[in-house]
Amino acid sequence: METQRTDAIAISKLLEDYYIKGIYTGDTALLKKIYHPGTLLFGDVKGAPYSKTLPEYLNGVVNRQSPEDAGTPFSGEILSIKVVQSIAVAEVRVKMYDFNYHDFLSFHKIDGKWLIVNKMMSDVNS
């Protein structure tokens, strides 16, 4: 039980330092630190299906103005983290521009490091 709590705290820190901050600043170097290179992203944006590989997603981040640079409101909130041995799921909400994303992020502990291996997201404003 203590290991699960320690791992959940570690995942929370990774989400704050790399995931949420990387999205806010548009820093793909930060995002690459938390994603496994083979990560796939699925969901819907404004009611339309969304499916990308990690390189496609990161290319989109590089080619958009970050919320930080735009000076627009932004929030990232960790709703929950559930850890079972070497796997975990984090539920995160990210509000930026006119999007209100609800994310489910699957983690796997690989070589002692927690990495996102799958991202499911939905723009709940649509």
From TrEMBL:
Alphabetical list of Gene3D superfamilies matching this protein: 3.10.450.50
Source organism, top-level taxon: Bacteria
Pfam family, one: Lumazine_bd_2
Protein name per UniProt: Nuclear transport factor 2 family protein
Organism: Mucilaginibacter calamicampi
